[in-house]
Amino acid sequence: MSGLQPVLPSNQAPSTFEYGGGDEISAIVLDPGTSWIRAGFAGEDTPKSVIPSDYGVLEGVEEKGKKYFIGDNDVHSIRPGMEVRNPMSDGIVADWEAATTLWREAITPRLTMALSEHPLLMTEPSWNPPKNREKTIEIAFEDFDVPAFYLAKAGVCAGFASGKSTGLVIDVGASNISVTPIHDGLVLRKGCVRSPLGGEFLSNQIRAYFESANIPLSAHYQVLSKTAVEVGKPAEATYRTFAPGEEPTESYKRFQEERVLTEFKECTAQVWVGPGPLPGNNNPPLEAAHAILSPGGRTFEFPDGYNLVFNSERFRITEGIFHPPSMLTAPNPDPNTTPGLNQLIANAMKDIDVELRQMILNNIVITGAGSLLYGFTDRVNAEIAAAFPAPRVRVMAAGNSVERRYASWLGGSILASLGAFHQLWVSKKEYEEHGPNIVEKRCK
Ligand SMILES: Nc1ncnc2c1ncn2[C@@H]1O[C@H](COP(=O)(O)OP(=O)(O)OP(=O)(O)O)[C@@H](O)[C@H]1O
């Protein structure tokens, strides 16, 4: 695929195109991640429907035996007994019933009531196993009854979003950091690598740090009102109380705490500039590092008003991403066997043909919401420049956080609206003739 078309601004109607016998229909693009499910019309520049992948569920109610609570409003509402779950594990679907329900909900009624009239392009990670791929196409044709379907690699789509069909895509998601080499719009399988050092890992690092430093983590739903207090002074807040049996579940509490941890990542956490490990990280106390690491520090206020200035800690909690021996103690992946991001990039490049290497190094794309950490792209730049001292190494990361969050969706939107893409759709008729295995032959 070459010759990418410009994407429409969101205030312009989506382009329609001819599918099959001449009906003009917009394709739907669905990018299901561990944190968010992004859905919208091909040809648009942002997904119109973005819902959390976490959902609430009450067991033992209604005739189906369970009731789902999907979408920002519903999943955040306090309901006694409501568990909060996620259908994904390691970036791929683990609970098909929940995933199908969420995907449908992301599309109808948010985008259209007529799901069966729109071709559907979905994204998948490069490590999605064949049985999951077949199950996905089966859901598309048999549950959603779509007229045509395509399963596109998220890495390839993220490359397209930056106008690259050849390059190296570094995607920092919730479950994983993945590094995907692509060439002419196809993934180079032997170079696809990943490590469980994404946003969930970072949340665990922050939790571990708060626990070790006795920093109380409150969640927004727990606080009815608060008074401003000085830095480090105990919170003066009125907390919500619950009658016995009315308390939210532990999974709801953790989900709400995760919101605060994400706020901490957005506002306070920072990545050491590198190259090489954070100074003094393995040699506490860290006073020596304080002087080098932004001595002013950064204040973070918890939902109950408790606030602290964070100094070198905010670098220390992120360092495990690049240098796993620096992980804080937590239920972690094994720091001795888990590759850090530097190692991942080296592993991905190791088997790339020499002629291609230079082109790939010249087109490194950073994407995923987890990459929005302060200093992340600077560190990647520094590490890559140190590891590959070639004159033409170029690292690109969209300055616009929306593009970084939605890159895979946006690439899918571009792909599905290309004129030449028509021939790639798998039609319902082809699916009926060949069965779900057609996904292996047609969606490379
Ligand atoms: N500004 C930010 N800085 C750092 N991390 C962030 C920021 N905003 C969101 N995150 C984290 O990014 C992660 C979600 O990233 P993203 O939306 O790319 O994942 P996903 O595509 O849903 O997941 P996956 O790719 O694992 O399936 C979450 O862990 C979230 O806490």
From TrEMBL:
What does it do? Answer: Actins are highly conserved proteins that are involved in various types of cell motility and are ubiquitously expressed in all eukaryotic cells.
Q: Which SUPFAM superfamilies match?
A: Actin-like ATPase domain (SSF53067)
This protein's species is Tuber aestivum (summer truffle)
Protein name as catalogued: Actin-related protein 4
* Family membership noted in the UniProt record: Belongs to the actin family.
Q: Which superkingdom heads the taxonomic lineage of this protein's source?
A: Eukaryota
Which reactions is this enzyme annotated as catalysing?
ATP + H2O = ADP + phosphate + H(+)
Which InterPro entries is this protein grouped with?
A: Actin, Actin/actin-like_CS, Actin_CS, ATPase_NBD
Q: Name one Pfam family in it.
A: Actin
